[in-house]
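Treating backbone geometry as a discrete language has practical consequences that deserve illustration. No coordinates are needed to read the tokens, only the vocabulary itself. For completeness, the protein is quoted in full, as a sequence line and a line of structure tokens:
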Amino acid sequence: MNLTKEKLVALWNKREEIFAENENLIKRFDKVDELFNEFQIIGVEIDAAQKKVVVKKANEKENDLEIQGIDCSYFGITKDERQFCLDRTKGQEPVNLMAKLLSSDKIYWINLIQDIGCLLSGYDFSSTLLDRYKMMEEYRLLSNNKVAHDDNGSLLTGGQYQAASSQLSGNNYFFWVLKTIAEIRTGSFAPQDSHLVLSYPNSKALDNEEKQRAILERRFPYKFFYMWTHKDEVIHPFSLKAYKNFITQKDVALRYDADQEMNQKYSDFAEKWKEYSDGIVKVITDIDPSASSNLVATIADLSKLISIIMAKESDIRNIRDLVETGNKAIILWGPPGTGKTYQAMTLVREMLDIPEKETKEENEEELRKYQFPKEGPSGSYDIVQFHPNYTYEDFVGGISPKLDGTTLSYTLKTGRFKDFCDKAAGSENSKKKFIFIIDEINRADLSAVFGELLYALEYRDNPIAIPNFSTSFKIPSNVYIVGTMNNVDKSLVSFDLALRRRFGFFKVMPNMKVLENLSKYINEESLSVYIKRCENLNVSISDKNSLGLGEDYQIGQAYFLKIKDFLPKKEQQSETREEDFVLPNLTIFELEKLWVYHIEPLLEEYLGNKIDDEDTRKKLAALRKAFTEELKA
């Protein structure tokens, strides 16, 4: 959302409605609020010499928690015989282990230790101990950057090792977290003396406490602790995503210039955030004088509102908003390889609320349970791919030839889409959602394939007569149509105006943040240089002073992800523990293969006859050289 001061005011005026529609996010915000209230009445006494820690809750001596045999040095937890952070590929286990083994079986501490772990790593809070916790992108406090001094890395959580975010709970005893929060509250905190650990010290960039402290000083957790320990005075979003999306808005009235690169030092942040917050609160009090009478409540509601609208901000959220309004039909369009079909399937998962499983195979199996003609408790989906020979008879139905031996006859065939709509129209399915995906929608003759469905698309639930069928046909209001199209191969011109106005259009452009998924295969320093090269290549493709093809001819992230296919198989398939395994650097050999086999053929297709031009060939050669030369971090 491109948020402006005026939009923020409008959202403020309808905040109660927004709160009511976002129960899960409100629960998260309220739980974080409850925790920070609880933290205020907890004291921590650490005796490093005696290796003893005592954690106390005010006025409840019976709940005092004494922990013996604790190494209180910076990396002390790595030496703990209970192996809280032994396996770094399973960052969720320490939350469970610490709650069980450090709590002396006291229910209060079991719950609190678990809650602290879930807070640090962006896990869903749970009322019971779990073997596996679910990390949520919108709740995380750290990006996937593991050694960088900023939080500009992606927050993707699907099926990948979540590096620093999952490790934050596994590499820190809960009492150091409580002590850090207490020091930030009282103003006695010094980042250079902090005991918080970012990650297991398994690389040169992380092998001593000074390096880790220098990294954490600029990352989000300390800023988060500051905002929430001063929550009666300043705006306090509940996650990194909400914070980042809000402060980077273009409107100067909302923009926080001091942390645009997500690397502002904590000491500078603590000085400037109050002034920025006061300005945001003033936006509201200027138009709503009643908000001035209780500033604490106003700041709380405003923080809650910002958390909701900014944590939900994503392509999928915007796509869902679009498809659930108007004619309930959208087209995802953009350059090749930008993940349009992936976005469509992600939309299916979200709209049908399909349960998320632990492995890719289990997720695919769960998805198949919802594919038409099968049907899940929330609905069903189907997917077809259009091509030049796809017809009205395939889509809706009609007379079809049938050869039985030497006898030719004609039968009435029901098309895929008609079958789907007839199922959705059943009275037992009126409360369910049915999503029909049309991949490569612009490759067929759309006017011929849709025929009289143009009317039915706009006027849902209104029956129409269709050729050869004795019964009428309708597109029910619980049917959602999602098309995908590659605008380079065939443009929007293939949609006549009558068809085009019945669809909403959402442009899907390259998302280089997805390339951070390669952190499982390539070391971070090398990967950051590679991502920058991919971004530069797309800039050159668009730039009129280089290839000058325009932004619609940029290369999607799916092409750049293919680099992993050329990495040494031994490294790619290694089962070595993460703390012992050194990820490889990219070399010119992998870059050359990617260029020759995938990128260059695509660019030559884009350029067409221009490839014969000598100046164009020189520009292409220059791009190849810049992309494939040896990487230097």
Remarks:
- The longest helix spans residues 266-285.
- Strands lie at 42-47, 52-57, 65-68, 329-334, 379-385, 397-404, 407-414, 433-439, 479-486, 504-507.
- The chain is about 40% helix and 10% strand.
